[in-house]
Design goal:
The chain has two domains: 174 residues, FAD/NAD(P)-binding domain, CATH 3.50.50; 134 residues, 3-Layer(bba) Sandwich (FAD/NAD(P)-binding domain). It is 23% helix and 27% strand. It has a five-stranded parallel β-sheet. A five-stranded parallel β-sheet has the order 11-18-12-13-14. Helix 5 links the parallel strand 13 and strand 14. Helix 1 packs parallel to helix 6. The radius of gyration is 21 Å and the shape is globular. Bound molecules: flavin-adenine dinucleotide (FAD). Flavin-adenine dinucleotide (FAD) binds next to helix 1 and helix 6.
Length: 386
């Protein structure tokens, strides 16, 4: 529990962490472990709960809602002060962060982990929003089971996207149709050059077989437009698909933050230690960064790298290690989940692995060095029970 005085930094290094998701929580726990009393951590976040987003994909299929954890307890576990606010902007010259309600918070180091903003790409599609996925997709699943829907398309909306949920939703929906003995044509359109291409060719090949067996045709290296209800134009090639329903990922972009230099689509460009380019004391991790694969496990690894760099600034005796991405995932299917992993270099996966056997004893959908044990300890069965 929180037995330190967190009210001011004293002679400790003032570290602000903006965000209340995977990257922020992981960074706070990591920094507390690595730097201890050398840092005074404040977590700025508007949300009262940390939500375990990956399991939202099961909600439309009759599973209980994704697990939620009080953020105040998580902050206390990291000996961090929780500031219930949003980060609105930064003055890096003065080392001051501004909150949405006008407060000024001085910092020595600031880690921005505010996630990506999502917006629907297609007017005529059901856009995935994990805060209310049951509400969005429950009707569709019912219509599938009752035989009202014959053709469904799943569309990725852009390059920077969460890799897993579109495949998971397609596989789970196909499973429902099979169980209900209803014939449905499924198509998935993606700009990737193979299914889950980031995991490398072995994983893509095996996943391709699984999708094929589930009756899901995949159109790769393709972009979709939806000019009208039920009509999809696929480019290149200009093929037109006619379907009954369309499910799409949202487009992701970096949220505006005054005073923070942004790269393409508003994302933040960092070096391998999570430092914003040309800003010694500004860091970023997670979906808000330029890394095109928006994945909780990678967000946590970025957070760990930034936490090490900040801990070193605070005088902790360690050599900060760079972010060397290893992507690990559990892909939900209608039957056994698949455990997949790959090292990533230059946007490509290598040494990919796909198996029905878990690689570790207690795998979790978001693999995070500090956060996973915390979540498991506070809700041991959250990945198990319907
Ligand atoms: C349906 C779905 C399934 C997924 N499945 C998986 C999976 O199986 N495995 C996996 O590893 N990843 C998965 N992901 C991806 C994963 O959830 C994200 O990559 C991860 O949550 C990113 O963490 P983050 O901390 O960067 O952002 P987020 O988790 O989005 O957290 C951002 C936080 O910042 C807060 N915030 C926003 N604006 C501000 C502000 N201005 N100031 C302060 N705080 C702010 C938000 O309230 C939120 O708490 C999935 C995503 C979705 C949507």
């Amino acid at each position: 529990m929180n037995d330190r005085d967190e009210s001011n930094g004293g002679d400790r290094r003032r570290t602000l962490i903006a965000g209340g998701g995977v990257a922020a929580a992981e960074a706070a726990l990591a920094l507390d472990d690595l730097a201890g009393d050398r840092v005074a951590i404040s977590l700025i976040a508007p949300n009262e709960h940390f939500v375990y987003r990956p399991l939202a994909v099961r909600e439309p299929f009759g599973y209980r809602p994704a697990a939620r954890f009080p953020l105040a307890e998580l902050a206390a576990a990291a000996h961090a002060r929780l500031v219930p606010a949003t980060l609105a902007g930064v003055d890096p010259q003065r080392g001051v962060a501004y909150t949405g309600d006008g407060a000024q918070l001085p910092y020595d180091d600031l880690l921005i982990a505010v996630g990506a903003a999502a917006r629907p790409r297609y007017e005529h599609a059901l856009t995935i929003d994990d805060r209310r996925l049951d509400e969005i997709l429950h009707g569709l699943i019912q219509d599938v089971e009752e035989g009202y829907v014959k053709r469904i398309a799943f569309l990725a909306a852009g390059q920077a996207a969460w890799p897993l949920p579109l495949y998971e939703l397609a596989l789970l929906t196909a499973g429902r149709a099979f169980d209900a003995d209803v014939k449905v044509e499924f198509t998935l359109v993606t700009p990737e050059d193979a299914p889950l291409a980031i995991f490398g060719s072995e994983v893509s090949a095996r996943l391709g077989e699984i999708l094929d067996a589930a009756g899901i045709s995949v159109i790769t290296s393709a972009w979709a437009e939806v000019p009208h209800q039920g009509e999809i134009r696929v480019s290149p090639g200009g093929t037109t698909l006619r379907v009954d329903r369309i499910v799409a990922l949202p487009e992701l972009f970096g949220p505006p933050l005054a005073g923070v230099p942004r790269a393409e689509h508003g994302f933040l460009r960092t070096d391998q230690h999570g430092r914003l380019i040309d800003n010694q004391h500004l860091f970023a991790a997670g979906d808000v960064t330029e890394l095109p694969i928006k994945h909780g496990g990678l967000a946590a690894q970025q957070a760990d790298a930034a936490a090490e760099a900040i801990a070193a600034e605070a005088g902790a005796p360690l050599e900060p290690r760079p972010f060397t991405p290893l992507i690990e995932a559990i892909l939900l299917t209608d039957s056994a989940p698949l455990f997949i992993s790959a090292h990533i270099s230059g946007g490509h996966g290598f040494s990919g692995r796909i198996s029905e056997q878990p690689p570790v004893r207690e795998p979790m959908k978001i693999a995070a060095r500090y956060l996973s044990p915390y979540l498991r300890q506070h809700a041991a069965d959250m990945e198990e029970r319907p």
